[in-house]
Amino acid sequence: MLDQASPLRPKAGAHDDERVIKLAVLAVGGQGGGVLADWITDVAERNGYIAQSTSVAGVAQRTGATIYYIEMARDTGRLPVFALSPSQGDVDILIAAELMEAGRAIIRGFVTPERTTLIASSHRIAAVSEKIEPGDGRASSDKVHATAQAAAKRFIAFDMERIAADNGTMISASLLGALAGSGALPFTRESYEQAVSAGGRGVKASLAAFGAAYDRACGIATAPAGARAVAKPAAAESTAKVSGPETLLKGWQELAARVAALPVPARDMAERGLKKVVDYQDIAYGGEYLDRLDKAVALDGAERGYALSIAAAKHLANAMCYDDMIRVADLKTRSTRDSRVRREVGVKEGSVLQVTEYFHPRIEEFCGTLPVGLGSYIENRPRLAAFLDRRINRGRRIRTDSFTGFAMLWLIGGLRRWRRRLLRHRIEVEHLERWYGLALGYVPQDCALATEILNCRRLIKGYSDTHARAQSKFDRVLSALAMLEGREDAADWLRRLREAALKDEKGDMLDGALKTVATLGDSTAR
Length: 526
Description:
The protein is an alpha/beta fold. The chain has helices spanning 33-46, 99-107, 128-131, 141-151, 160-166, 171-182, 189-197, 203-219, 246-260, 264-280, 283-299, 307-320, 325-332, 335-345, 363-368, 372-379, 382-392, 403-413, 423-441, 447-455, 465-478, 481-484, 490-503, 508-525, and strands at 20-27, 49-56, 66-74, 93-96, 117-121, 154-158, 356-359, 396-399.
């Protein structure tokens, strides 16, 4: 997003040659903030400016970014007085290597509407506080965008991390390109490129990312004076064509035709769910998914916006694609994962990548991968289960870059063709049918409550101990149904319970919410 450009204005009483340009860069470890600061300093000096660069280290990688602070002034023969760190309301240009860093800079007062040009990459890196919340703890990116538009004189934002990754370099190069393309500094593109070239390492990739970001910043249309211009989002990538054996393609096309016959509001979620389920198991499993979904669609209607069908399409897919040892092994041996790891680590073509996977199976996971009869036999004999658990329940590190390690996981992943015969699958299907039947049973009397019961499936996620804790929360939330049944606000209260369960790992908030629901039941009885 880019508003109409306007030159930096000197402070009242200052001559243009004497004014100090103040620029701050907020970046965390590994994003090349120091390199970016050096490049900007070099560019300034190449253009006859005196520049000073300092850094103020953050507390930790995701609880405080390092602030690289640069002040520059035209060399008039008299040495200017430079500050060592930025001050609130006294920053001309602020560059944030991630969207939420831009938000934090606004909160700290570094961005002002009459002065600051704010340049930020629109990609997100989840903070620790966002990761530890069991539910979706992500802060709203839209709110940051709206706040930045109001708080800054100019706001330029696009995915600079993607540009850097596509060109095989660090985000510092694309951030520099965005700065050059913004026109916020009175320097030519050539002087920026000369500074990058002087580095001597990775010059070709850095210049490519610089050029792409420069063109993107320049290409964002400016609005008339006083108006706000919004950059059009990059066009979404076209969906990849489905390919494979003719028999499988025919089965997929039949399933796709069934999705196309669903009500329009439910189609998108149903298509996503179908792709996930087929990828998880096979075409026949996709048919089972649509058979179950049809039951919800038959009970739903346009007057409700097909909310029940959309919730069913989403959460049925998640319930049918549970995490087990087979799934974990399958994902860790896919070629796409190897490509992603190589890209993220930055492994050069032809180099050897060594990957060590960590596994810590419990007796429950071991029994779950056995046929129903054998797995049940072990679980029903505590002494035998304990004996085996002492030998199984310990961490294992497996090198998947070795033939033995990869073959071991590949064989486990290949068990998915027999998954329907295994104990874990029977347990998951029985749980799914109870939950789904419970939800659909409430549709005639309270469709909103039925929808919220479906949404409670959000609580169940993860693998091993995480899955066990999640299922415990799920059961506790649904235990309130008996107290809520018949209330007009039953759906709202169930939603509150679910959100409370997602707020903290220990479940203290859920305990408090359940006590509140219990008091509501007591007051109704009286």
